[in-house]
Amino acid sequence: MQTTPNDIFDITIIGAGPVGLYAAFYAGLRTMRVKIVDSLGVIGGQLTTLYPKKLIYDVAGYPKVIAEDLVTSLYAQAAQYNPVLLTDCKIETLKRTGDFFTLGAENGTEHFSKTVLIAAGVGAFMPRKLDNHDAVRLEHHGLYYAVKDPKVFHGKRLLVVGGGDSAMDWVMALANHADITQIHRRDKFTAHEDSIEKVKNLPVKILTFHEIKQIIGEDKVEKVVIFDNRTNEEKELTVDAILCNLGFLTNLGPIKDWGVDIFNNAVKVDINMETTLEGIYAAGDIVWHPAKLKLIATGFGEAAIAVNNARIYTDPNANFFPGHSSNTNEKKQKEKVH
Ligand code: FAD
User: Fold this and answer.
1) Using CB atoms within 10 A of its CB, is residue 19 exposed (0-12), middle (13-18) or buried (19+)?
2) Residue range 16-26, pLDDT digits in tens
């Protein structure tokens, strides 16, 4: 259904990743009329598309939580306030029309909003892949760049490539289920210190300064040749599977044309999480500010700051401080009773 300018939302959130979902909850808490749109057919952003079954250890309140379960909880939290959620809706254009914004989607629909929160993550993203003919041929046949179902690796001889958080998290999750060798091209790991310590105490063979030279196998991965990048000495390992965690290539796409300042391939925000265009806020992986950390936990805080500022923008008489959520919810309960 095509919306009309009579249907102007208080806030439209671009991106239903964890940060956009939390922002939708928060805006509901602030009694704003909320629309949340995502270009994908599913909600949850990177958690759903890249690591649905991975354990996350650094979200407040959860000693550990499976990524897809966190998305389910975030959605349940947001759904309390009945936001309008549109999936398969990629926003291509964003412009001010008088005192509201018009968002144009790839599917031809238009959306109208007093404020906008860009929670578009890293824009379009794809895993960085091995530049190697056999790697192209054997992708999904023993060679993986993302894990949809960890059981694929159970009982297997697994080579994990990489030294960042994803590599470490998968080693921790799979160490009791697979025979793991981990290689990393340097001796410095970029993962959380605690994860590095934990992995060192697991029954995992770790080879630093090693990279993949060749992947061998007809229809599926059977062996891999790795080499020491200091000496060029080669080793052949018999493996059933290879899981590469080499980072991601990202592309801001249409966001570059929306008129907001871009810095470091991200949207620049001030301390209020407002972009260089009034009324347009940003939060999560998409933003750049001097203290930026690309984590779910910090994205949640940014979402709360952005939404409280957007609330004032829609009504300058509103309080910036939202009150405590228990007060707001208790008030809601009382309203329901009367
Ligand atoms: P995203 O999750 O990227 O969601 C953004 C959404 O916006 C996407 O769904 C996208 O489709 C949508 N979108 C983009 N452009 C448009 C558009 N033009 N129109 C409509 N929709 C659009 N962080 C942690 O804190 N702990 C971890 O353990 C952890 N592990 C990770 C493991 C891996 C393998 C990876 C890749 C990342 C990990 N992260 C972790 C990082 C974490 O996933 C991100 O910080 C988080 O997803 C950022 O959330 P977001 O909502 O800002 O963006």
Assistant:
1) buried
2) 999 999 999 99
